[in-house]
Amino acid sequence: MGLKELKEALKKALLDARAISAKAEKENRDFTAEEREQVKKFLEEAGRLKEQVKAAEGDEAIRKQLQELGADVDLTDGAPDGGTPVRPGKGLSIGEQFVNSPEWKAWWAKAAPGGQLPDSTRGIISPPVQFKGLLRKELVTGESNVSAGAFVAPDYTGIYEPLGRYPLVLRDLISVRTTTSDLVHFVRQTRQVTQATPVPEANVTTYSGATGEVSGEKPEGTLRWEPVTTPVKTVAVWIPATKRALSDAAQLRGIIDDELRADLDEELEDQILNGDGIGENFTGILNTAGVLVQAWDTDLLTTIRKARTTLRVTGKSRATAMVVHPNDAETLDLLKDDQGRFYFGGPVDGGVQRVWRVPVVESDLATEGTGIMGDWRKAVLWDRERANVQISDSHEDFFIRNMVAILAELRAAFGVIRPSAFIQVPFEGGS
User: Fold this and answer.
1) Are residues 213 and 286 in the same domain?
2) Model confidence over 66-80: pLDDT tens digits?
3) 370 - beta bridge partners?
4) Which CATH number do you get for residue 387?
5) Hey, how many other C-beta atoms are within 10 angstroms of the C-beta on 134?
6) Global pTM exceeds 0.85
């Protein structure tokens, strides 16, 4: 396939991918699974064609430069005094003579097995090949950018490696529901019925209180509730970009979308755990009134076991997990007995980390030094509007500057329906 055909094929692949993306944007939705797979295939095809176009353009440039170098050159047989034999070059350009010389072929076969220089190659120098008939003797080598080294094209792999983000775990532990309202209302029980008692059978029809009379009256129970209303909050972030950047880099829009969504999810997880309830912040688990607090007792393992008991007896809940900071998880793993043996199996243990039969879950957003044990099903996230990404040039003077704002946002509400189902656990004395 010629250079022109390669460029046409590349253009078609990019236009096909862009058409699918434009359709999803117009309908204000994410890609379907089928569309995502189609776009991926188009981009892979475009990447492959782009490399072929670069290679073809590089070949064309080499041919043109070699023709210019060899123009009007008298390439005669013979050898210069004390020098390397002159290439027999009648009818060949200087470039053709260079790449067909025994010195170059032998060196290239050794330096580039398979016809391609390894990425780790540094400071390469090819053997000199001399030619007679130029204004002065010139050495063509692969040493610098102004000689044959300029023809060594970099291999653009298209690999994108982000900086990385904290692994998110809380949404897998808590209850997730949906809502269509801007306010979520639920009722939290504050007092339960505890008045039940055995009752003897009545022996009189009208009870007067006389000795020997049994009324048979049943005790009245007391039950109390409190209404709780939590508003739907908006979590958002945006970045500026140029239209040219989005048009020229086929992967850029997808990278930006993924990065913005990841930032929303990370902030949402932080709000679930640490939100202080001020302004537009959620009231996170750690700042919810009624969450139990365990006092330090003797040592870490004793304190954690006491917390499990408190949660069971006072909170009337069974722990589904204890969320800890990675540094605290390391502290647990490295605990040893008096004989220097690891309590939790040591480095060869491949099972789920547990302490007192409660699964331990690491979260980088947890407060170091304090674990949160609880029945995580009693924390609820209500999705009002899933994370979505929009693009617009209607911000400030972006329209006349060919810039756009890429905005990602989600709407959700969060609440702890039973605060006593959670207990804070200190990891050191004095906490």
Assistant:
1) no
2) 666 655 555 444 444
3) 426
4) 3.30.2400.10
5) 14
6) no
